[in-house]
Write a structure and sequence with these properties.
The structure holds 2 protein chains of 2 kinds.
Chain A lengths: L4 H15 L1 H4 L7 H24 L7 H18 L3 H23 L4 H21 L1 H4 L13 E2 L4 E2 L5 H23 L2 H11 L1 H5 L5 H27 L9 H14 L6 H16 L6 H15 L3 H11 L1
Chain B lengths: L3 E10 L2 E11 L4 E5 L6 H9 L6 E6 L2 E2 L5 H7 L1 E3 L12 H12 L10 H17 L15 H14 L4 E5 L7 H18 L2 E5 L3 H7 L2 E6 L2 E6 L1 H6 L1 H8 L5
Parallel strand pairs in B: 3-8, 3-9, 6-7, 7-8
Antiparallel strand pairs in B: 1-2, 1-4, 4-5, 9-10
Classes of the chains: A mainly alpha, B alpha/beta.
């Protein structure tokens, strides 16, 4: 597949904007923590889009694996070892193993049945976190811990107190994750996922075991969303059951659709729009969600391919 | 050894018997047409062979192996490829990508996260070969959804061929096509049969196509085999004429 110059320019623009964010964000009246927030959610939404936009399967329960990633990290810090790498690893293992076990139970389902079952399984984890007070602190969440600076042997990076350093740490993780996802999507395996999205019956009769490939795509997607969840816990030095709840899953879907689920950078753009709107509107009114809701409805009605879809169409004409 | 032996298969949908004890033996290199009036059970019969449906009773033996209970993807791995009555392609991908997917699956790269430069080169060469064979070279980089019906159908046939099947099932390859397109597709099928020695079973309504292509013809009516034989025998068969012209003529 040849790389076209417009796409390359777009990629370059995205990376330049992300890399320079700590310099320009304060100058436009914002703050670097908002940038960190955007990158964390962009990772979650891009991971969701691996399944939604590139396999054609809608999950409404990705918050479960996001939340498990967050809880795995938080609980490791609180009860086992205060180490950032170990905490992240624990979050990834918890989220991914749960997804791998649940996957075969839902991979045969399609459409709204798949979505409903993902919500149901998601809510199971929400209620576990909510009820298991002695371990998770229930509704109060897991607090009383904080992320640790990175010790790299040759240098220490103070991601705890230096918010620019933490932003770049999150961005580095984001870069590796989206790089791997983009690489996978350009591989033979990635093309089988496109085939399933485009025409499941044709895919099956080309010798692709569709259910198994959906399961694989699901596990990959949940793996990356659990990394986002782990970063989310590190960002807040805290996690509570809302990270696992179904409305959190809905947020990922809204971000993805808002930005454009057929575009690789769509979820990033969607996450940025969502969080900037939230940040701005919520400082004026408590009802910020109604504004985002209205905006979302308009986009879905008039631009079903999201914000990046509009830009692409403009570029094509 | 026969390539395909269908032994007394039936398919019931509730009280409706769509296919009722049909048997068929296809020899390697043969081009077999399955014809019959609407509702005769032809497509259901195809769906049983390809695994889209599972038979109520009977057996399907492919290259000596019972494949009656295998899932569709596994039957593809065994060497059975098919097209559909309503063209099934990947409309938002280019012709090249449509062909590349089955080539990669066939070459065993279904779950590969990357390809070596050598493997990539081989796959590109094979895709180009298929594009040329299907007369799709000039349209290679267009989206399949934008192509004419005939070109979409040619793409679908080449996708099936990309799987290097030992048995190709074509469900009404010329359905809904104009004269020129029908001619082109017929020539393509003939080329695959003659040059590639491919065994083909096809369902077809256009009798010109059937009599032009088929080595043997099987006639289904109301789920049962009405007649089987060479095109000449079938043309002379009174029961077949009756089925096509209506009961009154019988």
């Amino acid at each position: 597949m040849p790389t076209n110059p417009t796409k390359l320019a777009g990629d370059l623009l995205v990376w330049l904007a992300l890399l320079s964010a700590p310099f320009w964000l304060p100058r436009v009246g914002s703050y670097v923590e908002l940038g960190t927030h955007v990158v964390v959610f962009a990772l979650a939404a891009t991971a969701l889009n691996f399944l939604l936009g590139y396999t054609g399967v809608l999950s409404f329960g990705h918050a479960a694996y996001f939340g498990l990633g967050a809880y795995g990290t938080a609980l490791t810090f609180k009860y086992l070892v205060p180490s950032t790498p170990v905490g992240i690893l624990a979050g990834i293992v918890l989220g991914t193993v749960a997804a791998a076990i649940i996957g075969p139970m839902i991979a045969r389902l399609r459409g709204v049945y798949f979505a409903m079952c993902t919500i149901a399984f998601g809510q199971v984890f929400y209620f576990i976190a909510f009820q298991w007070f002695s371990l998770t602190g229930g509704d109060d969440g897991v607090s009383g811990w904080h992320r640790e600076p990175l010790h790299l042997g040759f240098a220490d990076i103070d991601i705890l107190n230096n918010s620019d350093a933490f932003y770049y740490f999150v961005l580095a993780v984001f870069a590796v994750c989206v790089g791997v996802m983009a690489f996978l999507l350009r591989s033979p395996f990635g093309r089988t996922l496109l085939a399933i999205r485009e025409n499941e019956r044709r895919a099956r009769f080309l010798g692709i075991p569709v259910d198994r490939h959906i399961w694989m795509s699901w596990v990959i997607s949940c793996f990356f969303v659990s990394i986002a969840g782990s970063l989310f816990a590190l960002m807040n030095n805290f996690v509570d059951p809302r990270a696992l709840r179904w409305d959190q899953s809905g947020t990922f879907v809204i971000m993805t659709v808002l930005g454009g689920m057929r575009s690789f950078w769509g979820p990033l753009i969607g996450a940025a729009i969502y969080l900037v709107l939230q940040d701005y509107i919520s400082s004026h009114t408590e009802n910020w969600m109604s504004f985002i809701g209205a905006f979302f409805v308009l986009i879905v009605l008039f631009f079903p391919r999201g914000v990046l879809g509009i830009i692409r169409r403009k570029a094509a004409t | 050894m026969s390539l395909l032996r269908v032994e007394n298969v039936s398919k019931h949908f509730g009280s409706l018997v769509a296919v009722d004890g049909v048997s068929m033996i296809v020899e390697p290199g043969e081009l077999r047409a399955v014809i019959g009036p609407n509702g005769a059970g032809k497509t259901t019969f195809f769906n049983l062979i390809s695994g889209f449906l599972t038979q109520t009773s009977g057996k399907i033996i492919f290259e000596g192996e019972d494949i009656s209970r295998l899932l569709p993807a596994r039957r593809v791995w065994k060497g059975i490829a098919r097209t559909f009555q309503i063209t099934e392609v990947f409309p938002e991908l280019t012709v090249r990508e449509n062909l590349r997917i089955p080539v990669e699956v066939q070459a065993g790269y279904r779950t590969s996260p990357w390809l070596s430069a050598d493997a990539d080169g081989e796959i590109r060469a094979r895709v180009t070969e298929l594009l040329d064979m299907g007369g799709l070279g000039e349209k290679a980089d267009r989206l399949v959804g934008e192509l004419s019906h005939g070109d979409q159908r040619a793409t679908e046939i080449m996708m099936a061929l990309a799987l290097k099947p030992r048995l190709l099932l074509l469900d009404e390859p010329t359905a809904g096509m104009g004269d020129q397109e029908t001619y082109d597709i017929t020539q393509l099928i003939r080329k695959l049969h003659r040059d590639q020695k491919l065994t083909i079973v096809l369902i077809e309504h256009d009798m010109r196509v059937v009599f032009h292509l088929a080595d043997r013809i099987m006639v289904l009516a109301e789920g049962r085999t009405l007649a089987e034989g060479t095109p000449k025998e079938i043309a002379a068969n009174e029961a077949v004429q009756a089925a096509y012209l209506g009961k009154a003529a019988a």
